[in-house]
Structure formats: C-alpha cells, structure tokens
From TrEMBL:
Protein's recorded name: Bacteriophage SP-beta YorD domain-containing protein
Superkingdom of the source species: Bacteria
Amino acid sequence: MKAVPKVDATGLYIEDVIQDDAFSGIVPFYTDPTDTESPVVSYLIGIAVPSGLYHPKWDLDNEQWVEGLTQAEIDELKKSSNNQPTTDITQIQQELTNTQLALTDTFEKLTASQQETTNLQLAVADLYEQLASITSDQGGGK
C-alpha cells in the first residue's frame, strides 16, 4: 500500500489516499461513475508530489506537478511565516518564564511550610517534655 495524491478537477492537491503499491497513472473520478462523459470531480495521480511546493497542482495538460500559488501568494506566506515563529517563540519563552517563576514561588512556599512543620514538631516535643516532667514531678511527690 502507498499514499497517492488526489486532486480536484482543476488539478489542485486535496489529500493523499491509500492505494495498492501497483497503482500508477492518472485515474479520473466522474460525477456519475457509470458515465465517463459526465464532468470529472477529481483525479488520483500515480506520481508523488515533489517537495518544495506550497500548494501542489497537477498540470493536466503537461502531466507534471507545478506550484498552485502565484509568486505574490508565496511571498505573503513567507512573510507571515517569518513573523509567526518569532511570535510563537516569544510566547513560549514568556510562558516558560512564568512557569519558572510559579515553580520558584511554590518551592519557596513549600520550604517555608516545611520549616513551619519542623518548628511545630519541635514545639510539640518541647510541650511533651514539659508535660512528662510535670507528671513525673506530681507522681514522684506522692
């Protein structure tokens, strides 16, 4: 099995579909599958889409893959994609900084809480010793 490009009636790439490994050539799909005179809705193309195309288009006349976007559309995509990663990276860096600050704050609170717990345990131990001392003094005095 292999992925085969599916294009619309004008040749613009739609998606890959799974076909048998032996698939080759160009297969049209008609609006009425029983009537080959009806309009074509899509094609399966037995030639893989080459890398580097922004919006692949199958040239039905010359039987080859071409770019489906104009140069102006490609330039606009490049322009917006150049700005987008910076925004994404900046946003991720800010989120990372916020997370680090929150972790630091949580760690400081945890450390303070552990210190309070230790102080309370020491106070309880001290009270226990005082209580034991008082009860032993009372028991020893009888």
